[in-house]
Specification:
Distance between the termini: 32 Å
Order of helices and strands: EEEHEEEEHHEEHHEHEHEEEEEEEH
Strand content: 15-25%
Structural class: alpha+beta
Largest sheet: 5 strands, antiparallel
Number of strands: 18
Length: about 350
């Protein structure tokens, strides 16, 4: 029912924002791979709330526990189940939302679909659901590194109108992690931080763009016609909370170029083919071409704001609502590890599919 992602490497997330906990089941992980909580925790630490003054102040340790699928520190090839306890749930902060729909949130649409909803923190619609994605993504990243030498990385490129300089070929993890907004351009990063802080003080929110990339992906990954690599990446990214747009390579900017200027010329060197430019974003015909894969994901301003807005209640009567609770003034800093996780999940799934069909 829409809670499972992937074909051969399948993940199913579960849990609600203010329930007992959230987690994931990973099925299809190869056996005999070293795996412990220590492989998962660093990525969850990058995603957790309370890590800086520009994200949600909710206090969660987000300590992961592997419940199944490993033995003596190695994967068994059986389903891996992982979970994280919810430690700082405060459902009382959402009491008014039990009867009123937050504007541009999923409150009304969930009620319209199911006839019932968990109004405490948004339930499944909360970004807390992404804990399972990040935990599964950490497993996928380890497979990609160990078996294929692939590096997956993401960073903040833009917050509202502030745009940082990001080179997909040279950006490094230490540059991304050098500041709390996770923008590798230090000058733009400071401007972004000041803007997000102003939004937080005003009770408002702001959106922007995250760049995702994968370096070292070999040519040949991807499935025509409906499971093109960029199509699966798009589905993965647009399944994220607050995501509203996706483009790959030159994206929408490519419409400004002619075909002769947009094409990536091929050359050969030492028995390998490469391109002298990469406006295709590492994918052609839905299949990787061996160049760096890069794309952008647009995230809207967080829907829950601390300013009174017009809405309706569950009886369809006009009302107003001033939201409460602990929320991110901007999702982008914590979206970075989530984008990385979903990228890794798509790539490891296609790696297994390619091996099954072509090797």
């Amino acid at each position: 029912m829409g809670n499972t992602f992937g074909h051969l490497f399948r993940v199913t997330t579960w849990g609600e924002s203010h329930g007992g906990g959230v987690g994931v089941v990973v099925d299809g992980c190869p056996p005999r791979m070293a795996l412990t909580e220590a492989d998962i925790q660093p990525e969850l630490d990058r995603r957790r709330p309370g890590q800086s003054r520009i994200v949600s102040p909710r206090k969660e340790s987000d300590r992961v526990e592997i419940l199944s699928g490993t033995f003596e520190g190695k994967t068994l090839g059986t389903p891996i189940s992982m979970w994280v306890r919810n430690e700082d749930a405060r459902p009382q902060a959402y009491a008014e939302m039990a009867t009123k729909f937050r504007p541009s949130h999923a409150d009304y649409s969930y009620q319209a679909k199911f006839g019932i909803r968990n109004w405490q923190g948004g339930g499944r619609t909360s970004a807390r659901e992404t804990i399972g994605r990040v935990a599964a993504g950490a497993v996928a990243r380890k497979i990609l590194r160990a078996r294929h030498g692939i590096e997956v990385l993401a960073c903040v490129q833009q917050v509202q109108r502030i745009v940082g300089s990001v080179d997909p070929e040279t950006v490094k993890l230490q540059d991304v992690e050098a500041n709390m907004v996770r923008c590798p351009d230090p000058i733009a990063a400071q401007k972004m931080i000041r803007l997000i802080e102003r939004m937080r003080r005003a009770g408002d929110t702001v959106g922007g763009v995250v760049v995702g990339l994968a370096r070292g992906v070999p040519p040949g990954w991807g499935e025509p016609v409906f499971d093109r690599l960029e199509a699966d990446l798009a589905k993965a990214m647009l399944s994220l909370p607050a995501s509203k747009g996706f483009d790959v390579g030159s994206g929408f900017g490519g419409i400004l170029l002619t075909g002769t200027r947009h094409n990536d010329p091929f050359r050969a060197k030492r028995g390998k083919i490469y391109t002298t430019s990469n406006r295709s974003g590492g994918i052609q015909g839905g299949i990787s071409n061996g160049q760096t894969i890069y794309f952008r994901v647009a995230f809207k301003p967080v829907a829950t704001v601390m300013v009174e807005q017009e809405t309706v209640d569950v009886e369809f009567r006009n009302a107003t609502l001033r939201a409460r609770g602990r929320h991110d003034p901007c999702v982008l800093p914590r979206a970075v590890p989530i984008v990385e996780a979903m990228t890794a999940l798509v790539l490891v799934d296609h790696a297994l599919r390619h091996k099954a069909q072509c090797e």
